[in-house]
Amino acid sequence: MSQTRPAVDRFYAQGRVLQGLRLSLDLLQRHAPAQAARLALRLFDTPLPPRLLQRRSPMAPWQGLTLPFETRRLQLWHRPDGAARPRVLLLHGWSGQAGQMRGLAQACWDAGLSPFVLDWPAHGRSSGSRTDIAQWQRALQVLTVEHGPWVGIAAHSIGALAAAHGVARGLPARRLALLACSAPPRHLLEGFVASFGLGSAVRDRIRQALEARARPGLAGFEPDWLGRHLRLPVLLVHDRQDRAVPAAYSEALAAALPDATLQLTEGLGHRRLLDDPGVQQQVARWLSAAV
């Protein structure tokens, strides 16, 4: 896995605005590295494109439910007629939205479960413009107090990493399904730094800020740490041709976990994995087996 890297650099290489930011950061880091680090961290915390510019997928028959959270609001989707069913939580990834999980939500419903689908902070119809994985941990705690516990959690990309970390720290769930699980934050940071040509002085400042936010630091998102703290059955599904996050990250996590099932698919990529009926049914069966 040492020679693979998530395609953060390709993501941030897009658009004239990002090219302008790259030039600004290059100038700043030469003369004011602390200011460059603050600007870079703001960009690292900002989902792109901004949620207000994204086309939002329809969620009917799922109904919206707003939940106060810190100075913001979280948007949750569910079906009130599923109150007597076992509850599962579905989580999208960075720069995604709840609508991407609609097919999986339907498969879970057909399997007799009651899915709750979240728009993460600064995503979809939840409020905010900046967020990070540490705030996602707090959101999971608030959400679980209000609507949990969960029979299982299924999550995509960075949402999968957040779910794994949350459960490892005590979030109640019986099973996990991690789809195209993200690289740990230190790998994402390296890709981000490479994308903008940032030097070690700026990189180290950003890393220190991220370490201060997370508990127990960025090491808590690494396979070794998760392997020591995740004791429930975990299904990992990843496509061999995923160009955003190499399948090697799921393979490393599966090797570290005591009770993991790894399923590698072909030709689905990073996001189309969520739309595949076979994957949806597999995940629904996996979660329903915990009932």
UniProtKB/TrEMBL annotation:
Residues 232-288 form the Peptidase S33 tripeptidyl aminopeptidase-like C-terminal domain. GO terms for molecular function: hydrolase activity. Keywords: Hydrolase. This is Alpha/beta hydrolase.
